[in-house]
Automatic annotation (TrEMBL):
Residues 193-240 are annotated as: Disordered. Residues 195-218 have a biased composition (Basic and acidic residues). It comes from Oncorhynchus mykiss (Rainbow trout). This is Mediator of RNA polymerase II transcription subunit 6. The gene is med6. Component of the Mediator complex, a coactivator involved in the regulated transcription of nearly all RNA polymerase II-dependent genes. Mediator functions as a bridge to convey information from gene-specific regulatory proteins to the basal RNA polymerase II transcription machinery. Mediator is recruited to promoters by direct interactions with regulatory proteins and serves as a scaffold for the assembly of a functional preinitiation complex with RNA polymerase II and the general transcription factors.
Length: 240
């Protein structure tokens, strides 16, 4: 496969992985994994390449001047952070960029300026989109002037059509019938016998007749006596 030079391009949008190294990746060989020829993040003019060709240990990097790579942080078995730095003396270095390896995939960590620029660009894009949408609702006429025309006004002006109620499906009907039968088995209905109130309040016919017979002799004995036939008083002659 032809090699592609990606050093002049923005490396924040790409990643690199070698699946053959992933099962055996550890803090001892992670720098060797990072220095693979197909890795676009690796600079071959660094001091690590010189030490590798001379078969020296990484401790000799402190005595050299130039670009070098070190293992900054390791969290086995999934996370490794490698730093690219410019060494000026055994005690003075200038960080250039950081790279993090997650599950064998190498990414370049964005710097603070790139993060702020991305956030500002997203905010400006949102504000510009809001202005564009607002301008789409603006209307103008020489006789009326400017006004706002929203889509909600057209929807309110249109008469609302009643939605047809969808009939229940066969599954819904069977399910409802099953629930009703279950409730009926758990709570069976109780029936109450309704009595005729009129028949209970009315006394029997024989009792009524007996009471009428008892009242008849009492009325005969207590009947009023006929008026007495007394003669009118006699008239007496007046004495002169």
């Amino acid at each position: 496969m032809a090699s592609v030079d990606l050093r002049d391009n923005n490396l924040l949008g790409i990643s690199w992985v070698d699946s053959g190294w992933v099962p055996i990746l550890n803090p001892g060989n992670v720098l060797d994994y990072f220095s693979e020829r197909s890795n676009p993040f690796y600079d071959r003019t660094c001091n690590n390449e010189v030490v590798k060709m001379q078969r020296l240990t990484l401790e000799h990097l402190n005595q050299m001047v130039g670009v070098e790579y070190i293992l900054l942080h390791a969290q086995e078995p999934i996370l490794y952070i490698i730093r690219k730095q410019q060494r000026q003396s055994p005690t003075q270095v200038i960080p250039l960029s950081d790279y993090y390896i997650i599950a064998g995939v190498v990414y370049q960590a964005p710097d603070l300026g790139t993060v702020i620029g991305s956030r500002v660009l997203s905010a400006v894009h949102g504000v510009q989109s809001a202005f564009d949408e607002a301008m789409s609702y603006c209307r103008y006429h020489p006789s009326k002037g400017y006004w706002w025309h929203f889509k909600d006004q057209e929807e309110r002006a249109k008469p609302k059509s009643k939605k047809k109620e969808e009939p229940s499906s066969l599954f819904q009907r069977q399910r409802v019938d099953t629930l009703l039968l279950d409730l009926r088995s758990k709570f069976p209905p109780t029936f109450y016998q309704v009595r005729d109130v009129k028949k209970e309040t009315e006394p029997p016919v024989e009792l009524v007749k007996q009471e009428e017979r008892e009242r008849e002799p009492a009325t005969k004995t207590s009947a009023p006596a006929p008026p007495s036939s007394k003669p009118p008083p006699e008239k007496r002659a007046r004495l002169q």
